[in-house]
Amino acid sequence: MTERLLFIGGMPGCGKSTFGRWLKSGQGFEHIDMETQDLERFGLQNAWDEFWQGRDSDKFLRSLSRLSPKIVLDWGFPPSLLGVVSNLKSNGANLWWFDGDRLSARVLCAKAKGAAALPAFDCQCARIAAEWASIGAVFGSHIIRTVAPGGAVMSPESVWSIIGGSS
Questions:
Q1: Fewer CB within 10 Å, N- or C-terminus of the chain?
Q2: C-alpha span between 95 and 141 (Å, rounded)
Q3: Could you state, in order of their start, the residue ranges of all structural domains in the chain?
Q4: CATH architecture, domain defined by 4-163
């Protein structure tokens, strides 16, 4: 489908969007942040809706391939949609999960987005914890601890050194 389709999922505050922007600026990837208006901006909303509802998987993938040969999708998706992510994987996407110290990520989230963002952060982390076995089954060895205790976040270059040579 594409030369390279990366899918980055993970907990909030773990560097998914930062990494996606880094790939766009220096590695020639098109970055689509699934939690913003990027789907609409790139004209992908209808194709995405059909994809995740299981009506037309190929339409979304064809739409992506017309955008760029190298795409990174970044999505802090609800674990209840792991089937959608598995479908991306079966269609050639290289899946990665960004995780790490949740307390440190919570502090980073509060600093970046304010205290009002914490209930959503806590809810998402609770869903991730409840579905951790399923997440592990889908992502396998492609789980990176990008947030260390104390709040150090892995640099995009370090992440790329792990992801870049994988398939």
A1: C
A2: 10
A3: 4-163
A4: 3-Layer(aba) Sandwich (3.40)
Would the CA dihedral through 81, 162, 32, 56 be positive or negative?
negative
Closest CA to 156 of 58, 56, 43, 72: 72
How far apart are the C-alpha atoms of 152 and 108, rounded to whole Å?
A: 10
How many angstroms separate the CA atoms of 119 and 56, rounded? 34
Residue 75 near residue 8, CB atoms below 8 Å: yes
pTM for this prediction: 0.90
